[in-house]
Amino acid sequence: MNKKALAILMRARMRPNDPSKLALSPLSNEVNQMLSNSQGNQAPHATEDGNEKLNKQRSFEVVRDSMHSAISMNKTEVLDAVLNDFSEGYFSLSFENRRKLLLTLAKEYDLNRTQVRELIKQYLGLQLPGVSGNEAQSGGVEDEGFLSTFYRIERNLRHSLKPVYEVLFERLNTHPGGLKVLTILRADILSILAEENISSLRALDSYLKEKLSTWLSPAALELHQITWDDPASLLEKIVAYEAVHPISNLIDLKRRLGVGRRCFGYFHSAIPGEPLIFIEVALLKAVAQTIQEVLWDHPPILESEATCALFYSISSTQPGLAGINLGKFLIKRVITLVKRDMPHISVFATLSPIPGFMQWLLSKLASQSKLGEAEDISCSSADRSGLTFYENLLEPEEERGLIESSGDFAAGKNGMEIMLNLLTPTSHDWTNSSKLLSAFKPALMRLCARYLLQEKKRGKALDSVANFHLQNGAVCNAVSIIDQQSPFGGRINSF
Amino acid sequence: MNKKALAILMRARMRPNDPSKLALSPLSNEVNQMLSNSQGNQAPHATEDGNEKLNKQRSFEVVRDSMHSAISMNKTEVLDAVLNDFSEGYFSLSFENRRKLLLTLAKEYDLNRTQVRELIKQYLGLQLPGVSGNEAQSGGVEDEGFLSTFYRIERNLRHSLKPVYEVLFERLNTHPGGLKVLTILRADILSILAEENISSLRALDSYLKEKLSTWLSPAALELHQITWDDPASLLEKIVAYEAVHPISNLIDLKRRLGVGRRCFGYFHSAIPGEPLIFIEVALLKAVAQTIQEVLWDHPPILESEATCALFYSISSTQPGLAGINLGKFLIKRVITLVKRDMPHISVFATLSPIPGFMQWLLSKLASQSKLGEAEDISCSSADRSGLTFYENLLEPEEERGLIESSGDFAAGKNGMEIMLNLLTPTSHDWTNSSKLLSAFKPALMRLCARYLLQEKKRGKALDSVANFHLQNGAVCNAVSIIDQQSPFGGRINSF
After folding, report:
1. Amino acid A433: pLDDT
2. Are B163 and B71 in contact (CB under 8 A)?
3. How many other CB atoms are there within 10 angstroms of residue B407's CB atom?
4. ipTM score assigned to the predicted complex
């Protein structure tokens, strides 16, 4: 399980490593193509190799002007041409110019703060109809005329706090192809923010994310079961975006869409022909222990004998939708559907990696080991357990097992030090020793359960994958070391 | 063209005359049915005859509690059951209890104004990064840490100005069947507001309308051409909701979906099986002069010979979506589609009534006639044109023609008085006299053109139908008296 695959699993598909290549991303080119087709090929072609072909790029000023028109034009005027113009122009810009344009948008099309102050003044000048909601009735100011003024000013204040760039977002959203443009704008914004922290742009991103969440409410999404009968242009996208367990060939794809398997996608009518997110499900007799059982089971079992639906892969296709939890709704709808169609299936589980465990464990071991050393120097005879931050992560019998199994290597070291020394090398040699493996296992399992269920950050599980599933209503059922290559993959069975 | 039909034309389908019957509206029952089906029939049945069967109604308190749960429950808890519970409960309430519940929602789930005040205080305490948007760069306060605090407080203030009831709306929107529930809630709110002006409820309505507009953005709507191959359950809805030119029988319906005709609907995935709005189009050799030409042309012309697409009917199906202009986007998309598929069609027009003309003309005539009388008394010899508000609506030759054609009847009366006297009786006897008809026509045509194009209210055309078309980019091409039964119907050709 590589880092990229995990990122996709969490619906935050990788940003291109070189941001200046964004203009070349398949997504952008696709939209460029779409837009130029819809313009009867009058549109200039998309830049073919980024910054080099500057002569094909529109000048920054031209695109900035079309952005201004798109925002400031009266809505009864014909907007479509302007929005097409802006979209095309944007895609033709170099990454540096896109950055400049997005900063212009964030800073110069922000709130009208003079107006906000003015409305705040008006608002504070009015006697409130009961300061807290519950007193509204007893406030005594029940004159409808007054109340109507009050609500009007409150509404105006609320509206004045919306940034001017909302207009661009709203207009693009109602414009054919515009939702796709917005997701690409956001992917670019995220690329920039990954490199530099710019508050105004972060505020714009947070606003755009809120809008996209609203527009992509499950009510606006269509659930579609993807099968071998779907168009090749759609299946090609499944192959391209599946990144948890890459699809190796057509036979593999056909298998994943065939007997004992399901693939469901969430589609939005404004982004036709590709799912925003899709999930792959295996129908099994029991929860699988390893992903190999799922990917390599020949022949499939009879569907009528299945009792378990295993969600073994979920992939998002739009980097610009990072952080918008569509997976939650998709999983819920698929569970409802499977329950309805196959009442004999009663176990719903996922087979998921635990990407943060290794890092967490190593840093815990390292910091405890440092605290231990510090103690050895400052008060060598004191009881270690008296130190505020010191904690032995291991149970006595786990420690004993570790020391016994590691022999000479362990001389003079405590259990945590042995563990740290053995786990640190990326070669993971210890996995080749069955003695070490069986001595390690109980401690690793227990610590992994603790990591998944007890370690939190702002009320969320520290592990991003675990948090995703737990928030969706999963319970943690079993943890196992399933991948000898990368020993800290594990699995969470859930729902 | 009756009043109801006009209201539907403007996407403001009639509220039931007796609000207490709302629980009986086909829409509500439908949803009730839907909900009880989805509950495996465990749900109590919908009230069958309103207030009478109180024993079948849930008590107000129970529904209020489920509303409270639906709003206040943590989002990681399972909400579906609670939302189903609330929806069912709501539909089982009498109109009086629905009113009570909606008022509770409007008043007790409003803003937290203590929090708003606190955030305003924090906000005003910060030095602004340039008061107007354009000065943001030159403000000099470029410390990212400070800016990030500033944007955070601004965002918090924006969020605090959102009423608590937004949570209910958002949750219903993401809940299967919830969008339909929201449209019914709004239909009820509009019924109440038609009877009494309650500021808090009006504020709630305006908020809900804004949310619905966002969720029903064209990007979330699917355009579908409705044909004779569509399911009967869908076609049945077309018959039920078509209210501009009622569909008399199956042959009539088939004709409207057949050669030389098109019917397009906007569908939302959360309200399956019925369009939110649909439009009927006739493909003709030239713009029709009367609706009869459209409805009764046998046999149809060859589609390849058509040069004109006439939009002869548009109907909205959801009373709860009143005021949300879906028609505008529908017309735009249909025009694009027809242009693409049939490039030989170059004229896009509508044949529309002018519902407000008669009323406007009569009140104009009456007020001028009063001003005239007042003048006769106060300054009988003065020049009438000197009076500030007095205006002869008729041109000299129109006045002459009217006086000559009306004979004895006109003795001592001026043109406007004659017009007023003849137009007032609802029997419209004058339409039977070809002499009067031809004398009236020039003045009526001219005044109608003035009414359509020059009479405005808050920048909008006074006539609601005209305003709808003019806002959509139509131009007024011709006005004619087309309906002898109701002589002030007319038509606007457009686009």
Report:
1. 80
2. no
3. 10
4. 0.70
